[in-house]
Amino acid sequence: MKVIKTDIEGVVILQPDVFGDKRGYFMESWSQPRFDEAVQPIRFVQDNESKSRYGVLRGLHYQKGRYSQSKLVRVVKGRVLDVAVDIRRGSPTFGRYVAVELTEDNHHQLFVPRGFAHGFSVLSQEAIFEYKCDNLYAPEQEGAIAWNDPAIGIDWKLPAEDVILSAKDAAHPTLAEATDLFDYNTDYYAE
Fold it and tell me: Which of 25, 167, 171, 172 could form a disulfide with 144 if both were Cys (CB 3.0 to 4.6 A apart)?
């Protein structure tokens, strides 16, 4: 597994070793010891999967405070643009984002640490998206940022008329309006 650093500290792309031949391919998609050594010690407690069609945009989501989550995301079918936005007030990269294309062919994974909002847009006809979380989902602790916040300026690689949102995702505040963000100087991994 190769770890590729991004422009934002802590957000990394994982490129697994894929062994292919005429029968297909084999890859190790997850190894606790390798991840702990290469990225940071994380104990994932929940795996999620979603299926979406072209144009669906999910995000930008996060969970607040002690309910915050790290995520390790990947695509098993199709192609998405995956985005992590730094929402840690006081961070030198506050409001900046990393966008990575994850596909069934490149097998890349993105690690999104606590303190970041996360979302993705579906660029293929259909996508199956999987992610590991290091904290259980707590619906009462949900937070979100507007997917189209002009101050962040994400290019979701979709024409605006093709974007499909849930009613909830269409109504999130901008980063400037959000109240329950993270503090750069707080360790959200401390118990």
Answer: 172
